[in-house]
Design brief:
358 residues; alpha/beta; five-stranded parallel sheet; 11 helices; 15 strands
């Protein structure tokens, strides 16, 4: 039966097979003797999807609303709104920065779908986690990232930081122009985001050289792979764009030795994860003049602490992690489509390799 929301208030309790709602009378609007408390027993419905996240409750409810509209045969429910039997019935969890202790209270999960493309924090916090984890692969996210890479590459290519400094100094000086085909942009990471960015840069006329852990092919780009090829890519990169996942192998990848392999006056863009670049080594490379500028959208700690030296460093452009935000509309459609496919066929999209972290 449908339980009215007014004038009653409800208290959820758990039993082994049912959710029991104790309907308390509204004493403020009741004249005469109080009616007896009514107990309503509600059987758990099929298709319970738990939404587990540490983002704000308002955002969680917006996600639940979007997914519910796209999945009329499912119940998408915030974890805190689930009773014990519903938690046991949930086969799917949709997550964004989930608390591991909360996921542990969903004992019958079959798989987990992340609302984000990056899952390295989740993987690190869930050692030994058994259900497959599917990360968000959204063409709109790739398009947005490629757009950001092109925009900020052009920002550096057209010497915007230098002209901004000249404006502060009230100095009128024209810098020499180079054509895009005279510049090589290196990309670390040639997954969906890196490949889309490479194609956008090639279309703009830049030479592109890319590096990945395993062999990849991007039409028009010089693609290298493996540890031995990293130095070759760095040495050729006048601009370096970092889009590789954060793993145990890439943490601290761009240290003093690697930064020194970049050409004198190189410029760096980090749109991946902060810990991939050693911040202290980066500042040293900028202060020495070996690197000309760095555009940073990601940091070891976010939000970036107010006392960080990066805020006022003349060689750094600070961005508040905005290069490629998840688009709620397209992301919800993709998550819902993957869930519908699994319900229909039992097939999952490719899952994260929990050993590698992506």
């Amino acid at each position: 039966m449908e339980v009215p929301s007014e004038p009653a208030s409800f208290e959820r309790q758990s039993e082994s097979k049912y959710c029991t709602l104790f309907m308390q009378p509204d004493t403020a609007n009741t004249a005469g003797p109080l009616p007896s408390t009514e107990t309503i027993v509600v059987m758990p419905e099929q298709g319970i999807i738990a939404l587990v996240s540490r983002i704000g409750e308002a955002q969680q409810r917006l996600w639940a609303s979007r997914l519910s509209a796209l999945l009329p045969g499912e119940r998408v429910v915030l974890f805190d709104d689930l009773c014990e039997s519903e938690r046991g019935a949930a086969e799917i969890a949709v997550v964004a920065n989930p608390d591991p202790a909360v996921l542990a209270q969903l004992p019958n999960l079959v798989w987990v779908h992340s609302l984000w493309a990056g899952v390295e924090r989740m993987v690190a916090e869930l050692p030994g986690f058994r259900p497959p984890v599917v990360r968000l692969i959204d063409p709109e996210l790739a398009r947005t990232m490629a757009e950001a890479v092109l925009a900020w590459t052009l920002y550096l290519f057209r010497d915007m930081p230098a002209y901004a400094q000249q404006q502060r100094e009230r100095r009128w000086h024209q810098l020499e122009y180079r054509r895009p085909e005279q510049v090589t942009v290196g990309i670390l990471g040639l997954g969906a985001l890196g490949s889309a960015a490479a194609l956008r840069l090639i279309d703009a006329g830049f030479n592109v050289i890319g590096w990945s852990r395993s062999p990849r092919t991007v039409p028009g780009a010089d693609c290298r792979h493996g540890a031995g090829a990293l130095g070759q890519v760095l040495a050729a990169s006048q601009f370096l764009v970092i889009l590789t996942p954060l793993t145990s192998e890439t943490r601290g990848l761009m240290n003093a030795a690697r930064l020194a392999e970049l050409p004198e006056g190189a410029k760096l863009i980090n749109f991946a994860r902060g810990p991939i670049v050693d911040t202290a080594n980066l500042i040293e490379a900028l202060d020495s003049g070996h690197l000309a500028h760095a555009v940073l959208d990601v940091f070891d700690e976010e939000p970036l602490p107010v006392d960080s030296v990066l805020w006022n460093h003349p060689g750094v452009t600070v961005l508040p992690h905005i290069a490629a935000p998840t688009d709620p509309e397209t992301a919800a459609q993709i998550v819902a489509g993957n869930i519908r496919c699994w319900r229909r066929t039992g097939e999952l999209p490719p899952a994260v390799d929990l050993g590698r972290g992506y």
